[in-house]
Design brief:
Shape: globular
Strand content: 15-25%
CATH architecture of the largest domain: 3-Layer(aba) Sandwich
Largest sheet: 7 strands, mixed
Distance between the termini: 19 Å
Oligomer: single chain
Length: about 325
């Protein structure tokens, strides 16, 4: 238990590195302000497939293969794949894992899947149970709308608080190599539920979970916002970002001067996405393509990254259940510590 700090945090004894990463995004994402940073930008949302679900599976699989190739590795070199997506029975990750043939742990953390997979992958490597672990996730605007809200053919009106699910996939190869950046701390979130029942207001549902995880991390590590160049959440959007800032101010933590949300970064104001972006791929592609690049170029030395997830289902929403949410945090550090 010596690696545990406080109630929810682990300090990794042997911090793994992010050896390589790959990002694939849809056409709309490629037209946004970060378009130049992604590895692959699709020409259309079908990606040459017969359905949006098949397109998402192909994105997941190709992002995984690209991350492996960029590291100069082979599929057979990878000890484990940790991955998941938004769809029922995580069909995207399952079918991609079937084709990849890597020993597989399927995860469902909704949009928190990136840092959930990175947390578990980092623990596995730090504990010397693996040398190479691939962490991957994906989402697709059309598949998510069809499952969680309304089929696009209905032309339903979107509310001002609605967010646009990112079409994309991100994959990260973790290794025991001594090469920055490293994952040095993990803070595992708790389920938080403020009673939000509106499936078109994910920011309000997830912001309390993000604030709770950030507060827990600060308390466990005895470090405040000044310990980080940047604090990043996954997909709170504009409403959720402001709510998280307010909630943390009430707890005595002012993060406003170093806090960004990936859902507010990937699209521009003139792309008509309402409150911003969401989806498993939101934090994956913004972190993988843009934030890590800035770290490698020396702009940031240490960041706190949280992916945020709303753990609802189509059935629970129809039955009037509230939306429990979660956020998992990892520290990405250019120094191993």
């Amino acid at each position: 238990m010596s690696n545990r700090i406080g109630g929810q945090t682990i300090k990794l004894e042997n911090p793994p590195c992010i050896l390589s990463r790959a990002t694939i995004v849809g056409k709309k994402e490629g037209e946004g302000p970060l378009g130049e940073f992604f590895d692959v930008v699709l020409k259309d949302d079908y990606f040459g497939e017969k359905s949006w679900e098949k397109a998402e599976c192909r994105m997941f699989q190709e992002a995984a293969m690209l991350a492996i190739t960029k590291a100069g590795k082979q599929v057979q070199d990878i000890n484990y794949l940790f991955g998941g997506d938004l769809l029922n029975q995580i069909i995207t990750a399952n079918y991609a894992a079937r084709n990849l043939g890597i020993p597989f742990f399927g995860l469902y953390g909704a949009c928190s899947t990136l840092t959930e997979s990175m947390s578990l992958g980092a623990i596995t490597i730090s504990g010397r149970y693996a040398d190479l672990v691939l962490c991957a996730t994906s989402s697709h605007f059309c598949t998510a709308e069809r499952q969680f809200r309304y089929p696009l053919e209905m032309g339903a009106q979107r509310s001002p608080t609605a967010q646009w699910t990112v079409t994309g996939a991100g994959a990260f190869l973790l290794s025991n190599d001594d090469k920055p950046p490293y994952i040095t701390y993990i803070t595992t979130g708790k389920l938080i539920d403020y009673g939000i029942t509106d499936a078109n207001n994910m920011g309000a549902a997830m912001a309390p979970a993000a604030a709770a995880a950030i507060k827990a991390h600060f308390e466990d590590t005895q470090q405040g916002p000044d310990a980080y160049d940047l604090i990043v959440t996954g997909d709170l959007g504009s409403f959720g970002r402001d709510l998280a800032i307010d909630l943390l101010k009430k707890e005595g933590y002012d993060i406003a001067d170093r806090f960004i949300d990936c859902g507010c970064e990937i699209f521009s104001d003139d792309q008509d996405v309402h409150a911003g972006a969401s989806g498993c791929a939101c934090s994956a592609v913004v972190f993988g393509a843009h934030i890590l690049k800035n770290m490698e170029e020396g702009k940031y030395k240490r960041i706190l990254l949280l992916s945020t997830g709303a753990l609802l289902s189509t059935t629970s929403v129809q039955q009037g259940e509230s939306i429990p949410s979660i956020a998992h945090a990892v520290v990405i550090d250019m120094n191993r510590g």
